[in-house]
Amino acid sequence: MPSPKSEVLQGTLDLLVLKTLDSMGPMHGFGIALRIQQVSDELLQLNQGTLYPALLRIEQRGWIASKWGVSENNRKAKYYSLTYAGRKQLEQEVKSWGRMSAVINRVLRTT
Amino acid sequence: MRELCRTFLHRLAALFRHRHLEDDLDAELRSHIEMAIELNMRKGMSAEDARREALRSFGGVEQTKEIYRDQRGLPMLETALQDLRFGLRMLRRSPGFSLLAILCLTLGIGANAAVFSWVEGILFRPYPAVTHQEQLFALTGTARGEPELTSWPDILDLQRSCTLIDSFIVTKIMGTSLSIGDRAEVTTGSIVSANYFDAIGVHPILGRGFEPGEDAGRNAHPVTVISYQLWKGRFKSDPQIIGKSQRLNNVVHTIVGVAPEGFYGTFVGWAMQFWVPASMEENFEGGGYKLEDRGARWIEAYVRLKPGVTRVQAQQEISAAAKQLEADFPDTNRGRGIRLWPLWQTPFNNANTLLPTLEIMLAVVAFVLLIACANVGNLLLVRSFARRHEMTVRLAIGAGRGRLLKQLFTEGLILSAFGAAGGLLVAHWCRHALVLLFPARGGVAMHLPGEIDWRVLALSAGVCLIATLLLGLIPAMQTSKIDLAGALKSDSAGVVGGGGRAWVRSGLVVMQVSLSFVLLVGAGLLLQSLQKIRNTGPGFSTRNVLDTAVNLVPAGYDAPRAQSFQDELLQRVKTLPGVESAAFARMRPLSYGSFSSTVIAVDGYQPPPEEQPTVEYNEVGPEYFATMGIPLVSGREFTRADDEKAALVAVVNETMAAKYWRGKNPIGERVQVKSRWMQVVGVAKDSKYQSVREAPKPFFYVPLRQNFSRGAGLFIRTPLSPGTMATALAREVHALDGNLALYEVITLQEQVDRSTSPQQVAVTLVGILGGLALLLAAIGLYGVMSYAVSQSTRELGLRMALGADASNLLRLVMWRGLALAAAGVVLGATVALGLTRLLGSLLYKVSPRDPLAFGSAFVVMAIAALAACLLPAWRATRTDPARALRD
Question: Average pLDDT in the B416-421 region?
């Protein structure tokens, strides 16, 4: 039975994380996971655990930075924030995503 | 790209902060889960449901951590490090095994690295201070295909007509007396062309090199560049040295430069102490001014090719130029060519004498390495049996065979890396060791440095990798056969008769024995040729004759003064107590340097049209034959009466008499030398002239007085030791002239030994390594046999219980061990029959298939094999049947 929820592709996950941090400011992992699920109206199925290797990967590339902080509930949590390079990357990925989806849309319409 | 880089650095850094990052990860994930639980509880779930829901939506915590870790570090590197740590731990656990294995490999790799360093430092890149040695080639003339030296005018003409050659570099080694205060010492220097230092890219650290034009004009430029060692030692690093003067061969030279440290000139075998321009040639070389004489061939030369030009191209151009010289100057150049040689084949220095020995050494050390690897392989095999249980467990709990192999190779790599490190240390110690095998001459040690540069290091690393592969492969063959079920059954194989699994080990031992047998045969053959050479009488007495030189050329004597000096010295020497007779001669037999040679004509001898009868000769004084102990077959020897005023006479050797007078007695016949007719007054027995290995050749002698030369060897027949004689002689010489340098006084036996030193070196080296190989092979055989015995105690016990006595068991074990050795010997003999031909020029009057060499190698091998098997066999007889059967 086909599920109405879709798996998140790796590249897309990066984009989602960057975008989330861009609009919400510094956040911890749990917050990012919640946010992505909320915004996508729970349509995107996200194994929250997979978020962490992704965060590490993005951090290794220098697009985000992390720092230990204290959450709103007074809990120790690691906060991620967008770096300058990350902002640039986001702009670029948004652009290419737009181009890509336009192309795909066109292809889907014509056939 | 930048991101890849950054990622890599992050990952690399993570390797070193493992603990910290692990804690971090734990804390982060824990806080995530706790936040999720909190949220769920706020939504109204029970604590338990909230936790379950949080974990569900997170999806496997441990799994996430695994993925996270792979992302964080460098997994390939981490497993490698893990293997490495594990391997090191395994080696530490059995230190005896590890030490033995590393020692074997150190010897194997060290022998290779040492020989590589010699080949590099002596043959391939002998002049480390010289830039772009790969474009440097030796140049010689050729006459009838044989290399000979070249003449100065020829070099100048070649220089003008060859466009592919960047520069022609002229050098000529010479012994010279160097005056220090009122003393004079003999030292080595070079006569060079003015472009020398520029052309080889060596820049003096003080002063300058030679300037263009300083190599022209007879005795016009008495300037010299001195070596760094001379500056440092004799001149105490005087910073004001430039412009000071130094007497060389009694001529005052101005010091214009000091060569940099580490530059020893361009002659393999000797370190140069100074250089003078070619214009000063007459002062250092006997035989007059030669810069305008195309027939005087005295130059050792190198060429530097222009970038991108190959030797073949340059040779074509230079051959064409040589043809032109033949056409232009038929008198001196007909039938002669010019040839370029790679540095390692340079005919005029010790590269040439050492080449065959070093070639053989490369093969020998490869053998030693193989034997060492086989030994270590055997040790590893034994251990892999012992570790079969561990391997089986690891396989059973899911380790891939690939991972297991990687582990084994890592262990092999650790061993050979230690071996390589030790080997390089050995090579470092041995890099200058070659010179120890050569006697010092005139108190000056030879200069034969090995060179450990990146090429040698790379080659040694390559050897180490090959060793690793060999080592990893052997136990790997074993592990790939592990079957999980079978490993539980106890191993009852290894019957002394040989079980299925023992074949690898037996094969290795057979290989070891055969390789060391080949080396033994080689050593035997070389030893035999050395003995043949030594036993070949040189044709003169080697006992009770001392040999030295009093060179009057450097001291600036003219002929009449030199003659009276020689007369006076002879008189004084003959009155010394213990001296029976003494004589001068221009050339000393078996020394470096060449006899005069001349075209002769003989009454009644019609040479075939293409033959120009050319014969070498020596100028010798009265009593030469008596002093040297060269017997005269007929006629008389030279006396004081054969002087300038007397009729010209000559003494010929037997071969010459036979060749030119066809068995007729030549006494009273005439021979024409340089348009002068001489009467033959004596026939001397053949002797050795240039080399002990030479075939008998025509040779004759003329009286020194009638063909005077100032350069002179002095021979003294006396039972006194060279040391005693040297002191007395020095006193007499200095009484006559305090400025004369005395050469060392040696026995003629010493002279003969020196001329055979390449053979001696080959024998010593192959002997040492052959012995080493034998030892390693014996250890291997011993190891295999004692392991076999220890593995088959049950069988031995059974045999004993059934009535076998000690001698039965002894025979059983010995037979098995000796069978292995015999197989090795048969294999080795077959290989040796094919390989010993490669010894080629090192063999003298010994067939490469000489039965004596094979026989003695067999005997030595048999003794070693017996010794190696005896202890295990004896241990077998001590088996306690009751205990063996109970265990």
Answer: 90
Q: B466 vs chain A: nearest CA distance in angstroms?
A: 38
What residues of chain A lie within 8 A of the CB of B41, using their CB?
none
pLDDT category, B179, cuts 50, 70, 90? low
pTM: 0.76
What ipTM goes with this model? 0.86
* CA B314/CA B336 separation, integer angstroms: 17
pLDDT > 70 in chain B, percent: 93
Report the number of secondary-structure helices (H) and strands (E) in chain B. 27, 22
φ and ψ of B258, to 5 deg:
-125, 125
Contacts (Cβ under 8 Å, ≥6 apart) of B270? B173, B188, B444, B446, B447
> Distance from CA of residue B254 to its chain's centroid?
38
What phi and psi values does residue B808 have, to the nearest 5 degrees? -60, -50
CB-based contact B10 A59, cutoff 8 Å: yes
Exposure string for B243-260, b = 16+ CB within 10 A, e = fewer: eeebbbbbbebebbbbbe
- Is pLDDT above 90 for B604? no
Tokens (6 digits) for B210: 């030679």
DSSP helix/strand/coil, B203:
coil
pLDDT reported for residue B202:
93
Residue in B closest to A61 by C-alpha: B3
Residue in chain A lying closest to B9 (CA):
A60
- The minimum CA-CA distance between A104 and chain B, rounded to whole Å, is 28
Residue type, B579: V
Examine the pLDDT at B403 and tell me if it is beyond 80: no
A73 part of contact set with chain B, CB < 8 Å: yes
Residues of B with CB under 8 A from a CB of A: 3, 6-7, 10-11, 24-25, 27-29, 31-32, 34-36, 38-39, 57-61, 63-64, 67-68, 70-72
CA distance linking residue B550 with residue B593, whole number of Å: 15
**Residues of B in Cβ contact (< 8 Å) with A47:** 57-59
The residue count for chain B: 887
Nearest residue in B to A37, CA atom: B57
Residue contacts between A and B (CB atoms, under 8 Å)? 71
Residues 15-44 of A with CB under 8 A from B: 28-30, 33-34
Q: How far apart are CA A33 and CA A49, in angstroms?
A: 9
Q: Which residues of A touch B69 (CB under 8 A)?
A: none
Cα–Cα distance between B60 and B88 in angstroms, integer? 35
CA angle B167, B173, B179 (to 5 degrees): 125
* Nearest chain A CA: its distance from B404 CA (Å): 29
Phi, psi of B46 (to 5 degrees): -75, 160
Reduced to 3 DSSP states, what percent helix, strand and coil does chain B have, rounded to the nearest 5? Answer: 55, 15, 30
Residues in chain B closer than 8 A to A64 (CB atoms): none
User: Nearest Cα to B597, choosing from B576, B615, B620, B621?
Assistant: B615
Tokens encoding B246: 């130094």
Buried b (16+ CB within 10 A) or exposed e, B489-504: eeeeebbbebeeebeb
Question: Mean of the per-residue pLDDT values for chain B?
Answer: 85
Residue in chain A nearest B13 by alpha carbon: A60
Cβ contact B59–A50 (<8 Å): yes
Which residues have a Cβ under 8 Å from the Cβ of B831 and sit 6 or more positions away?
Answer: B514, B515, B518
pLDDT tens digits, B187-237: 888 999 999 999 999 999 999 999 999 988 888 899 999 999 989 988 899
* B191 neighbors B286 (Cβ within 8 angstroms): no
pLDDT at residue B207, as a whole number: 93
How buried is B43 (Cβ within 10 angstroms: 0-12 exposed, 13-18 middle, 19+ buried)? exposed
